[in-house]
Amino acid sequence: MDRQAILERQRRHLWPNHILYYTEPLPLDRGEGLYVWDVEGNRYLDFFGGILTTSVGHNNPRVTQRIHEQVDKILHTSTLYPHENHVALAEKLAAITPGELDTFYFGTSGTDADETAVILAKVHTGYQEVIALRHGYSGRSPMAMALTGQAPWRIGGTHVVGIKHALNPYCYRCPLKMTYPQCGVACAEDVEETIRTTTSGRIAAFIAEPIQGVGGFITPPPEYFAIVQEIVHRYGGLLIIDEVQTGFGRTGTYWWGIEHSGVVPDVLTMAKGIANGLPLSATATTPELAASMADAGLTISTFGGNPVSLAAALGTLEALHQEAPPERTQVVGDRLRRGLEALQEKYPLIGDVRGRGLMQGVELVVDRSTKEPAPRHVNALFDITRQMGLLIGKGGLYGNVLRIAPPLTATEEHVDEALEKLDQAFARVQEMAL
Ligand SMILES: Cc1ncc(COP(=O)(O)O)c(C=O)c1O
């Protein structure tokens, strides 16, 4: 079916709030490694991986072979019956999660994983209130939207009581108008201020991403989470770290983004890259905390821990270990970072480059001194890079951040190809009077 026919049928039968990238939306047909092809046969270098989800490249044989094998055996069991893949994946994840975070509840999405984490925190602590961060993102259920700290992602109103938002560690636009490191990470203290002034004084949890994904790859200073963890524990809460975007080595050197802070959280959530695109999520915690759920009441996830998704996750983990371990992501990510910083020197439009590993954000501003966001330039750059055969992502509350996050199997050559295309695209956009 051709592009126009797909788009016309989409307009007729799919809700209009489906977000479509590009002025000319792009129906994809197939993928291989770092490349995807649209229905007209055009090839694109994929540097967004379906929102940081195709972690080991498209059509990776280690993943697809396991899926094929499982499909021929049994598609669905429900968690009422133990399954070999269920326990096998839990063991493999336990080998890479920090500290004692070696027990799991499997679900189907990042939203599901974060909801499960908050339920655990409420059950375990007996408290109800939760602190989240401004500019954070937790998903699309009513509670996850209420945890999210960005108005555009809170559709339908989010009147969920007991959720408060602390200032976020957004160094480029510091909410306290201070400069790191002279600030002493003063924003972390706002978590205590928020607890003392807007809650009952006892909290169930604090939830945050190691690098805010949808928020525009906002990267807290390394000391931030250790300061916050001490405060959260002092007020009775659990530290929930959302690794939905940062997990599986994405940030380089370590398997998890939080490890750059030397902090072991109480609960860790993961989804997206876990199964290279099949729906699966997991909430990890210690055996001691998980034990609180034993007599908490009934819960079930019909599709959580689906054997086919689990098979895909087992293949994905094998591929990550063999083809894209965190040390390698660090090396390839460093090359990407250096290239983006070189573009920043060349183009005044680039106000900030931030992130870790293969999760790099580029914030565009109309003027570096006023830092006025440049969302129109982002849109122009998007259409140009699409024409050049490069897919990237965007984000940020002001819609002015490029999110560059290829599958972790990206090579130095892929990075160079992307940087060259970005260079050409920036040269054109920098000249536009937008
Ligand atoms: C950090 C983070 N948490 C949670 C979610 C929600 O995940 P899902 O869309 O799978 O429900 C997302 C999705 O983008 C995310 O980036």
Question: Could you please describe the fold and organization of this structure?
Answer:
- With about 425 residues, this protein is of the alpha/beta class.
- It has two domains: about 160 residues, Aspartate Aminotransferase, domain 1, CATH 3.90.1150.10; about 260 residues, 3-Layer(aba) Sandwich (Aspartate Aminotransferase, domain 2).
- Helix content is about 35%, strand content about 15%.
- It has 13 helices and 15 strands.
- The strands form three sheets. The protein has a seven-stranded mixed sheet with strand order 4-10-9-8-7-5-6, with helices on both faces.
- Strand 14 and strand 15 form a beta hairpin.
- Helix 4 packs parallel to helix 10, helix 11 runs parallel beside helix 13 and helix 12 crosses helix 13.
- The two termini are about 35 Å apart.
- The structure holds pyridoxal-5'-phosphate.
- The site of pyridoxal-5'-phosphate has 16 residues, from helix 5.
Question: Would you summarize the structure shown here?
Answer:
The chain is α/β, with parallel strands linked by helices. Helix content is 36%, strand content 15%.
Topology:
Layout (H helix, E strand, L loop, with lengths): L2 H11 L14 E5 L2 E4 L4 E4 L2 H4 L8 H11 L12 H11 L8 E5 L2 H16 L4 E4 L8 H6 L15 E4 L19 H13 L6 E4 L15 H11 L3 E5 L24 E4 L10 E5 L1 H4 L16 H17 L2 H21 L3 E7 L2 E6 L10 H14 L1 E2 L1 E3 L5 E4 L7 H19 L4
Parallel strand pairs: 3-13, 5-6, 5-7, 7-8, 8-9
Antiparallel strand pairs: 1-2, 2-3, 4-10, 9-10, 11-12, 12-15, 14-15
Bound molecules: pyridoxal-5'-phosphate (PLP).
